[in-house]
Amino acid sequence: MTTKTLKTMMQKQGTIPTLFSFLFILISFQSCTQSGNAASASAESEPIFDGKTLDGWKAVAGTAPFEVIDGEIVGTTVENTGNTFLITEKEYTDYIFEVDVKIEGAGNNSGVMVRGQYDPAGRDGAGLVFGRQVEIDPSDRKWTGGIYDEARRMWLYPLDLNPSAKEVFKVGEYNHLRIESIGNKTKTWINDVPVAYLVDTLDANGFIGLQVHAVYGDGKAGEKVYFKNLNLQTQNLKPKEFSTGVYVVNLLTNNLSEQEKKDGYKLLFDGETSDGWVGAHKDTFPEKGWKISDGVLSVLSSDGAESANGGDIVTKDEYSAFDLSFEFKLTTGANSGVKYFVTLAEQSAGSAIGLEYQILDDDVHPDAKLGKDGNRTLASLYDLITANKQPRFMKPIGEWNRGRVVAYPDKRVEHYLNGVVVLSYVRGSEEYRALVAGSKYKDWVNFGEAEKGHILLQDHGDNVSFKNIKIKSL
C-alpha cells in the first residue's frame, strides 16, 4: 500500500474520517509495508537460527555453553576449557552472512568462523576448529572485524592495516557484522563501515561458527557473548562496494586484485622477469648472484659478503611518497634488507646508502647484537630505531613474512611486520636527526631526507627470497 492509496482510502471515508477508520487504515498501511519489506528481505537471505532452538547447530572443541535466551544465542565463558564453537551442521561455499553481536567485558573475546574447518581428532581427541575467523575484540587494541586464521596461520588482517575502523565497534552494545565470503575474497563490515579485505588461497567451503573464547584463571569466567538476527544469503550474490584506500591483504603470488588495481597499486616484480630492476650503479640487471624461479626473486649465498656477488638491485623508478609491500623468506643466519629513498648519489663501499627495513635472522646472525638496543634486528630501521615486535607475530625462518613500509607525503614513515605496526618516525624531524647523528650514517649529509629515491633489495651475501612486491604512490 502506498501513501497515495492511503490518501484515497481516507478521502472515501469523508473529509474528516472517524478515529476508528483512521487507525484501521494506518495499521493496514503499516502491515502492508512491513510485509513487503519482509518479503524483499527473505528473497535475498534467510535466517539460519530459528530464535527458539539450536537445531542445525552443534557445539564442538570445548565445554562452554551456548543457550537460546529471549530469541538470542548466548555463549558463556567457562574456566579451563579450550575455545568452544557453535558451528553449523551444513557447510557453505559462497555467501553473505549478517549477524548482530554484543559482548560483555573489555577482556572478553569472540569471533565468527568463515568457511571453518574441524578435525575431531585434533587436540588429543578434544577436537580442533581451524580456519578464517572474523574477530570480535573489545580489548584496547580494538581489532574487531579483522581476520584471524584460527589454529593455523594466526593473524591475516590485523586492524593496524585499517586503523580508522578501530573505533567503530561498541562494547556492551549490539553491533552489526557483515561478512562476504565470495570466491577467494573475504570482506568484513562493522556497523556498515568497511573493515577488512582478504584475498586467500585456502578453504573453498566450510561451516559458519560462533566462538566462546577460552579463559584460564583470569577472572573472566561467566562473561557472555550474544548473537541475534543471523541471516545467510547464498544465491544472487552481489558484492557490496568496498572503499578504496583500505589496505588489501592479497595472499595470491605476484597478483593484484581488482580492488588493488582500482586503488592504484602496481607490481614491482611480475614473478617471471627482472623488468623494472637494475643493479645498483649499473644499467642492467646483474648477470649473477640473483635468481628468478617459481615466482620468487632470490639473492644467492656468497659467504655473507656485502654486495660482493651480484650486488644490490634497485627499481628503475624513483618514489617520493609510497605504500610498499613485500614478502620475504630467510634462510638460517641470513641478512638482507629493503632500502628506500636510495639516491645512488653517495659514493659508498659495499651496499648502496638508504633508509633500511632490516631483514635478519635475529637468533643467529651477529648483527642482531650490534648497534644500540636491538636497532639492527628484523623490521627495524637499521641502526636507528628498534622494531617493537612480538614473537607471536613473527613467522619462523624458512616461512614467508610480510613486510610493509609506508612513507607519507608529510614525511611520516611506518614499518609493518605481518600486518602490525612495529615502528614509526618522521624524516627530518629533530628526533630523527638526533638518531642519525648517533649512528653509522652521521657523516652523510641529510641522510634519508631526499625528496625521492629508488627501492633497493640488498645483496648481503646470504640466500634470501622475495615475492609479492607491490607499491602505490601516495
Outline of the structure:
By secondary structure, the protein is mainly beta. The chain is built from four helices and 29 strands. The radius of gyration is 27 Å and the shape is elongated.
What does this 3D model show about the protein?
The chain has 474 residues and is mainly β. It has two domains: 57-233, Exo-inulinase, domain 1 (Jelly Rolls); 258-473, Jelly Rolls (Sandwich). Helix content is 11%, strand content 36%. It has four helices and 29 strands. It has helices at residues 3-13, 19-44, 258-262, 430-437, and strands spanning 46-47, 57-60, 66-69, 72-76, 84-88, 95-103, 110-119, 128-136, 147-150, 154-157, 175-182, 185-190, 193-199, 207-212, 224-233, 249-250, 265-267, 277-279, 290-293, 296-299, 313-315, 322-330, 335-342, 355-360, 401-407, 412-417, 420-426, 454-457, 464-473. The strands form four sheets. Strands 1, 3, 4, 6, 11, 12, 13, 15 and 16 form a nine-stranded mixed β-sheet that branches. Strands 17, 19, 20, 22, 25, 26, 27 and 29 form an eight-stranded antiparallel β-sheet that branches. Strand 25 and strand 26 form a beta hairpin. Helix 1 packs antiparallel against helix 2 (19-44). The longest helix has 26 residues, at 19-44. It is elongated and about 75 Å long. Mean pLDDT is 90; it is low at 1-42.
Topology readout:
Elements: H1 3-13, H2 19-44, E1 46-47, E2 57-60, E3 66-69, E4 72-76, E5 84-88, E6 95-103, E7 110-119, E8 128-136, E9 147-150, E10 154-157, E11 175-182, E12 185-190, E13 193-199, E14 207-212, E15 224-233, E16 249-250, H3 258-262, E17 265-267, E18 277-279, E19 290-293, E20 296-299, E21 313-315, E22 322-330, E23 335-342, E24 355-360, E25 401-407, E26 412-417, E27 420-426, H4 430-437, E28 454-457, E29 464-473
Parallel strand pairs: 13-16
Antiparallel strand pairs: 1-15, 2-5, 3-4, 4-15, 5-14, 6-11, 6-15, 7-8, 7-14, 8-9, 9-10, 11-12, 12-13, 17-29, 18-21, 19-20, 20-29, 21-28, 22-25, 22-29, 23-24, 23-28, 25-26, 26-27
Helix pairs in contact: 1-2
